[in-house]
Specification:
The protein is of the alpha+beta class. The chain is built from eight helices and 16 strands. The strands form two sheets. An eight-stranded antiparallel β-sheet has the order 2-3-4-5-1-6-8-7, with helices on one face.
């Protein structure tokens, strides 16, 4: 069974003097916004600073001055962004950032990055970048061009793992897998002490988790199928420092690291990335919005030849 785990991601920041997204917007609006991209809200947790929604395809986080939405599969995330802009107007928006990772089967998607930023261009001016090589792991990023300047302490991290080990895939594709079993395997209690956790195991495969503590957030999305395995982590916690533990658990063939406003990214990688992985791509830039962005791809060099994969010619074309 094939599933596209790579996420599309949007962060929309607003002027909280005009509207407080936590207190002035009820959950029915967020449900409609999520439905626009062909996903549904499955469950919710919240504290004084944040609401976190587990979706049928990834996650939505809401703070008083911004929301962050990630969707996977064949969702059309740009529709949700457009819905928010047309509902509340451009005037309350202070900044928009939109990202798309390279997909396993991009031809199966309802749109590409170029299509998506054409939609955004109807509402805001912006710049677009590609981090990484076109024929390898890469991520596309669009940001609005205006007078917004990011706080240097506004730091976030992404760790995106590909081709997890056979052992990890077998554990995460067991029948009747429970949330508790996934948490133990991923050492979530060790990684996230004192966090409030909300998670969901999908049938037949897949796992999503949101966790919040104060203003901090952490989310994990697992596509464990051996032929297209992908596990994503995103957080305000330093995932470069947590990478040794995560990599040891999953043993992926490759993984990407992406950081916003982490000035010590290179030294953190040197001190924390296991020595058997080599850096394939390292790109960085200071965006006009004052987000310092770093992108790195690490691979586990192959030491022997592998066998070709036989394809199911009777299956869907995009899964070939």
């Amino acid at each position: 069974m094939f599933f596209e785990g790579s996420e599309k991601k949007a962060e929309v920041l607003i002027d909280a003097n005009n509207i407080n997204l936590l207190t002035d917007v009820d959950n029915s609006f967020w449900a409609k916004l999520v439905n626009c991209c062909h996903a549904q809200i499955l469950s919710t947790i919240e504290n004084s600073y944040c609401k976190a929604f587990v979706l049928s395809e990834s996650s939505l986080f809401v703070w008083q001055d911004r929301f962050l939405i990630l969707t996977c599969g064949e969702t059309h995330l740009i529709n949700s962004v457009e819905y928010f802009i047309t509902h509340y107007g451009r005037e309350i928006i202070t900044h928009i950032i939109y990202q798309r990772k390279n997909e396993y089967f991009a031809q199966a998607q309802p749109s590409c990055f170029g299509d998506d930023i054409k939609v955004l261009a109807k509402f805001v001016d912006g710049k677009a970048y590609r981090f990484g090589e076109l024929d390898s792991h890469h991520t596309y990023m669009f940001h609005q061009t205006n007078d917004f300047k990011a706080d240097a302490n506004d730091k976030t991290y992404e760790l995106l793992a590909y081709q997890i080990s056979k052992k990890a895939s077998e554990i995460l594709t067991q029948k009747h897998l429970s949330k508790e079993e996934v948490r133990r395997f991923l050492c979530i209690d060790e990684l996230l002490p004192e966090f409030t956790i909300d998670d969901f195991v999908f049938d037949p495969y897949g796992y999503s988790m949101n966790a919040i503590k104060g203003k901090d957030y952490f989310t994990i999305h697992v596509t464990p199928q051996e032929n297209s395995s992908y596990v994503s982590f995103e957080s305000s916690l330093n995932l470069v420092e947590l990478a040794p533990k995560i990599v040891d658990i999953l043993k992926p063939a490759s993984f990407d690291l992406l950081s916003f406003n982490e000035a010590d990214f290179e030294s953190l990688c040197s001190n924390n990335i296991p020595s058997d992985y080599v850096s394939n791509v390292l790109a960085s830039t200071m965006l006009d919005n004052h987000y310092l962005v770093h992108f790195a791809n690490f691979i586990l060099p192959q030491t022997q030849f592998t066998s070709p994969i036989e394809l199911d010619v009777s299956g869907e074309n995009h899964a070939l």
